[in-house]
Design a protein that fits this description.
Blueprint lengths: L2 E5 L6 H12 L3 E3 H10 L3 H11 L6 H12 L8 E4 L5 H13 L6 E6 L2 H10 L7 H21 L4 E5 L4 H17 L8
Parallel strand pairs: 1-3, 1-4, 2-3, 4-5
Helix pairs in contact: 1-8, 2-3, 2-4, 6-7
Length: about 190
């Protein structure tokens, strides 16, 4: 079983590909957005905190997100493998995750980067027709993504698998599976979990 992180800009198809990977690899898809919504719906202590920050239009602090991720990763279905989506977003969060996994004698096996050009992303996001998807807003979000994600990609350079995210859903999925297979074949046995 694999422990994977999937990254890519908004509109790259991460959620769609993550759901397919969950089916194909038999590992849980752990999305921070889903964790936030589930904790809010269940009115957990962490959910109440998340709601307080989101309603105020503020970012949820790392400690709160990390507590949710730690709790989710300790559930039985995530013991042997998982697919993280939306976390970590920064090198600080990546270091925290590495420390957490180390305490469990685990580590990430691969970081899948869905590569899609800004032009294609702009086209995809504008075609959704959402009121907050203006060309200016999308450009701002893409710029922020590139600025924040570049250090994360450098941090994971030894396990980074860049995959072309343009094409039919199944075609992209096959590219991801092929890249994961190749990475496992080239991984020294002491690095495998």
């Amino acid at each position: 079983m694999m422990k994977i992180l999937i990254v890519g800009p908004q509109g790259a198809g991460k959620g769609t590909q993550a759901e397919k990977l969950q089916e194909n690899l038999g590992i849980p898809h752990i999305s921070t957005g889903d964790l936030f919504r589930a904790n809010i719906a269940q009115q957990t202590e962490l959910g109440t905190l998340v709601q307080k920050y989101t309603e105020a239009g503020e970012l949820v602090p790392d400690e709160v997100t990390q507590a949710m991720v730690a709790a989710r990763l300790s559930e039985p279905d995530a013991e042997k493998g998982f697919l993280l989506d939306g976390f970590p977003r920064t090198t600080g969060q990546a270091q925290w995750l590495a420390d957490l996994l180390r305490t469990r004698d685990q580590q990430l096996d691969a970081v899948v980067l869905l590569e899609v050009s800004d032009d294609v992303l702009m086209e995809r996001l504008l075609s959704r027709g959402r009121s907050d998807d203006t060309a200016e807003a999308i450009s701002r979000r893409l710029s922020l993504y590139h600025d924040q994600t570049r250090p994360l990609l450098e941090h994971y350079s030894d396990i980074l698998l860049a995959v072309d995210g343009v094409g039919a859903v199944d075609e992209v999925q096959q590219r991801i599976l092929k890249a994961l297979d190749a990475s496992q074949a080239n991984t020294p046995t002491d690095r495998r979990s």
